[in-house]
Every structure is written in structure tokens, then in C-alpha cells.
Amino acid sequence: MACASCGNKENGVPAGCKSNGSCGNGGCDKLTVFNWLSNMDQPDGKGTYPAVEVRFKNGRKEFFSFDPEHMTLYEGEAVVVDMTKGYDIGIVSLSGELVRLQIQKKHLVQNFDAFSKVLRKATEKDLELWENGKAKEAQTMVRSREIARDLNLAMKISDVEYQADQSKVIFYYTAEERVDFRELIRKLADAFKTRIEMKQIGMRQEAGRLGGIGSCGRELCCSTWLTDFRSVSTSAARYQQLSLNPSKLAGQCGKLKCCLNYELDLYVEELKEFPNTKHKLKTEKGNAFFQKMDIFKKRMWYSYADQPNEFIEMSLEQVKGIIDDNKKGKKVLALRSESSVMEVEKTEDYANVVGQDSLNRFDHLKGGKKKGRNKKRRKSRKQDQKQNNQKGN
Fold first, then answer.
1. How high is the pLDDT of residue 28?
2. According to the model, what pLDDT value does residue 126 have?
3. pLDDT of residue 22
4. 351-388 burial, b if ≥16 CB within 10 A, otherwise e?
5. Domain 132-201: which CATH class?
6. Residues near 98 by Cβ (< 8 Å), separated by ≥ 6?
7. Which are the contacts of 61, defined by CB distance < 8 A and separation ≥ 6?
8. Residue ranges in the chain modelled with pLDDT below 70
9. Domain residue limits, the chain
């Protein structure tokens, strides 16, 4: 659900707030969190939790402390926060007791003196200066890429963020190898007349900051709700019986999709019940080797060595029973009857129940008409020849 600014239309076209992840109503921002404790009253004698979570551009979040006796903060409010040098403006994304739970989840020490402070609520002048900084980000990024290209640096500047007081500019870049950007910082400082900070991010973080639509048709998880990026290996695809196709397993970041880890624990748990697929089933007919399995239906398919194209479907209990008999030195006659062999059945997509839809159904009629016409023509020709001969005589 979009905010009121996005809902405003001009000539039938949505205006758009162009907040780039800084919408105050939480409708079009990234990595939103629903405060499910907001409607619960505080116990008697317990005040408001003196810390809030503040979100900056493209999902960057930090915790800040404030004095609840002199200030009341709610989700969606723009606040001015103290930084190392200068100040910055962010949007309150979380407040109340849920902030305490988030701090515990991230294993942070609840020392409010160590947190930076919320100075005040943002005024119109602060917001105007903040908007001016955001308006210069696109032009700054283009110019910084030109400078990096002139220096022949193997890096990609993917995003730029101005601090609210415009005393510092943060450049986010990706690089496969270590880059010496000391000369780049000097040139950037001369070009923009401000302090420069370079932050290297990974491919997944870059995709999360830029956003996009995945192959599933939904927005990227890293740009909507995913905050912790865990390593994904090809073994996750093997456990889920997926084909190792890089074009299908890789996301927009070029790395393996994060969603491969979502159901991995369930697959690993279910696979514990299955026997080792390297075991061959010994029968009187011959040895059978493993072909494929359906983990949740608990079905397995085997094929004989001399008939590798015929898949024999078996239940997990049957396979375990045969393996136990093989360990005891016993062999079964065959895995299953021939009717259990998977064969491709030819099914007709269309049944001609009327008998009048054949493509050549008119051929014999046309042929008969043609034959009749040819006979008449021949007779007429013969008659003409006889008449001509009679006239000649």
C-alpha cells in the first residue's frame, strides 16, 4: 500500500513521492518491520523504552537513544540524530518494547550511553537541506564513476548517500579485488568539496540497495525483508534435487539465490530417513542402481544396469526392506512387476468422436469428381473428333 504522495495523480499518472526508501508512512520503504507490540500498554511503573531504531537510505538501520521525558517519538517521524561529525536525518522505523527485543536479537549491549543520541525532531529547514542533498546524489554518482574510470580502478560505484548536513558523502562500491582508492578520494574531495567515505559492499548488498524483480515475479528478498546474508553453496541445490544450472540458480546479484536456504533444513531432515543412494539393490534379475527420488512422497526410482531407461518406482519401505535382505545375503526375484515400470503413455490431445474432422476427408470426393469430369471431357473430345472426321469425309 503506497503513501498519500504516491497516491496523488497528475493526468491519471501516479505522482510518486520519490523518497527512495524514506517514505514516512511505511508504505513504499524497504525492510519495514511491523510493531506487533504497539497496541499493548506498558505495565504500571514502567516507562517508555529509551531507544528507537532509525532507518536511513536503502534500508540502513541503527539504534539511537533519546530522553522519553522530553521527547515522544513514533514510527514514521523524521528525526535529527547525532553522528561522529555533524548530524544526519533518518526515519523512526521502530519504537517501544520491540526495540529491546531487536537489540537482544542482534546481541548488542543495552548501554544507552554508547548509543548515539536523537537530537530533535526534524524541522522544515532540516528536511529542505536533506532533500537538496538527495537531489544531488544521482549527478554525484555519475561524476564519481567518470573519475574512477579515468584512474583505471577495477571497481563499481553503485550508490551515493549524502549526510543530511552535507558535510560527508558516502560512496558504496563493489570490487572483486582489493582497490587502492587513495588517489580517488583526493579527486572526489576536490570535485565535491566535502569529506569522502568509501564503503565496500558485496554483490548481495548491492542488489538489495538497487532493488529489482526476481524470477519468481516478486521483489527481491534482500530489498524488502532479508537483512542477514548467509552463504549459499551448491550442496543446497543437491539436497533439494535441483539441476545444477547456473542460469536458473543464480540471482540478479550473480550469486546463488538466497531462497535456496529457506527450505534446506526441512529437506535435510527428511533425507535422514532415506538410505544411501550409492547402494545397489541386488536381485535375481540383476543389480539395480538409483535414479531419482521424491522426498516428500517418499518414493524412489531404480533401474537395472541393462535397462537404464526404464525407471521402476518403489516406496521407501520397500527399498529399505530390500537393502536389509541384501545385508543378510538374500536376493529378491525382482524389484517389482513389469506393470510398475514407468513408461511414457501416448495420450491423444484430441479425440475425433464425430469422424468428420480428418484433414483429407474430402480427398476421395475431390478425386471422384475429378475422375468424373475427366471422363466427360474425354467423351466430348471423342465426339468432336468423330464429327470432324465425318465432315472431312
1. 53
2. 92
3. 42
4. eeeeeeeeeeeeeeeeeeeeeeeeeeeeeeeeeeeeee
5. alpha beta
6. 33, 35, 36, 37, 38
7. 31, 53, 54, 55, 93
8. 1-31, 44-45, 336-376, 379, 388-393
9. 31-122, 132-201, 207-270, 281-342
